[in-house]
Amino acid sequence: MSAEGSERKSLRSRKYSYVDYIASFFPGLRKKLRVAKIKITEHKYVKDSIAYSLLVSVILLLLYVLIFFTARISLLWLIVLYPITLFALFMFMMRRVDAVIAKRERDIDKELLFAGRQLLIEIRGGIPLYDAIGHLTREYGEVSKVFGEIIDKTNLGVPLDVAMEDVAEETPSKPFRRLVLQIINSIRSGSDIAVALETILNQLSQEQIIEIKAYSQKLNPLGMFYMLFGIIMPSLGITLLVTLLTFTGVSLGPVVLWGMLALIIIVQYIFLTMIETSRPRFEV
After folding, report:
1. pLDDT digits (tens, 9 = 90+) for 11-56
2. What single-letter DSSP state applies at residue 75?
3. What is the C-alpha separation between 98 and 121, in angstroms, rounded?
4. Is 136 exposed, middle or buried (0-12, 13-18, 19+ CB in 10 A)?
5. Rounded (10°) angle between helices 42-71 and 29-36
6. What SS3 class is residue 97?
7. Could you give the 3-state DSSP secondary structure of residue 59?
8. What separation in angstroms does the CA of 261 have from each of 11, 84, 190, 206?
9. I want to staple 53 with a disulfide (CB 3.0 to 4.6 A). Which of 40, 89, 175, 201 is the partner?
10. Domain range list for the chain
């Protein structure tokens, strides 16, 4: 019985070592999971990513076989295509944490300036810093959650400046870290928190104005290229092509038409993604 138990333990350790070996290629994964507030271990995250990638790749493999069989393409191409698909799916699953961090960063930056203004008003009104931060734990979305973490740590006996420093280290928003570190420096140096807070809020406000202007300048060429390559060329180009081929007696097959449609969709998606990613992180 003991020999069987040791064998199971050995197999389990080899299995875990294999997942941990893959996780070793992502050294910053543990910190990213903390920043993204994904409450699982890096081992579990990699293991789930492998499982999902295998499941989806098997479904795609069956789809590949159906398409290749219908188009009479050699199935030997799957020897190259399947590993590429599996690797791409695994990397996509591993990048989920980066997408969660980016979304959390946008949500924090979107409400940070408004929450900071309220904090400044309350501090100038004579409200203690702890109580002023406690009033920010509502109505400001992700920013309220972050300030709520500071209050929770403080209630557990952690000094307020230490709690703010710990939370700032696990927050993806650089403006939030700048604001919090400015408050921490004021607490530890004994200077006026309101003055330091007003300074950093004015800086953030100016940076947002500059970012909005830069975004408006980017929209002009993007809109022009989108109208040209996303609307005018597909519509007029396909119409002109069909008209010219009609005189030559050549007709476009369904495969070519579906290919054109797929190309148009890809071009539309690229332009819309470029516009969305260049958009400021806060509300405009």
Report:
1. 444 445 678 888 888 888 888 999 888 888 888 999 999 999 999 9
2. G
3. 35
4. buried
5. 100
6. helix
7. helix
8. 51, 25, 65, 44
9. 89
10. 2-94, 106-206, 213-277
Quote the CA–CA distance of 32 and 98 in Å, as a whole number. 7
Angstrom distance (rounded) from CA 38 to CA 103: 13
Full-model pTM: 0.72
Q: Tell me: the pLDDT tens digits for 121-165? A: 999 988 999 999 999 988 888 899 999 999 999 999 999 989 999
Alpha carbons 113 and 256: distance in angstroms, whole number: 51
Task: Decide if domain 106-206 falls under CATH 1.20.1250.
Answer: no
- CA angle centred on 34, ends 33 and 37, rounded to 5°: 85
**Cβ distance 29 to 20 under 8 Å?**
no
Contact (CB, 8 A) for 86 and 80: no
Q: Whole-angstrom Cα distance, residue 54 to residue 86? A: 7
Q: How far from the centroid of its chain's Cα atoms is residue 274's Cα?
A: 15
Q: Which two tokens stand for residue 47?
A: 């293991």
